[in-house]
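Course assignment 3, question 2. Fill in each field.
Student: A.L.
Task: Predict the tertiary structure for the chain below.
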Amino acid sequence: MYFLLSQLSLMDLMHVSITIPKMATNYLSGKKSISFVSCAIQHFLYLSVGGAECLLLALMSYDRYVAICHPLRYTVLMNRQLAVRMAVLSWLGASMNSLIHTMILMHLPFCGSRKIHHFYCEFPAVVELVCGDITVYETTAYISTVTVLLFPILLVSTSYAFILCSVIQMRSAGSKRNAFATCSSHLTVVFLWYGASIFSYMRPRAQRTPLQDKVGSVFYSIITPTLNPLIYTLRNKDVAKALRKVLRKGIIIQ
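Answer field:
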């Protein structure tokens, strides 16, 4: 569990690092420009990290399923090798998906205004600048959404359906509370991340506005990655206990 959480923390840190420094530089300098190559790199990186987080959260739901439904076999079913494979699958799968997206999008013809109505190179804002046929790209985006977003949501829903059935069968109220406490942090992050992603990428183009796209992007690219460590820290007894020890040592030293 902690290894998977470390990967989630790394993804959140990278997600913020991809967009915030360039946005802050443009704001402070007043230039508000980005080169074509830098835009392509930023597009590839944010899609890679975002897709990896979608896949990792889905795989983490299996970890919660094993912890609740098969607690005595947890160390056998969720061994270190499987956790490493989950992380590698998340990173590689998302990177391949992002590479295909970026190559197709950046080879489309751009003409007219080169003004991106966004604070970073998010693909819906960049697609608006394309003046050619985007049928191939739209097909690729549809397949990508099903693979990286809808399939993980289905996996999370299935895992928690089994968890709910297992919790209902528990007779002890304490066991039920422990089960919900085990899953609460992950469920909170899942709702925040997938909710913002669905709002940003699964609405019809006719119903989208630049302001709504910016608000959705701020939520899942800045707010959610910032909240994730707090959510897991505040809900995790081991982390809270370790934090209290550090604070107690600091007070004693002072």
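Instructor remarks: The chain has one domain: 2-253. The longest helix spans residues 135-169.
Grade: pending
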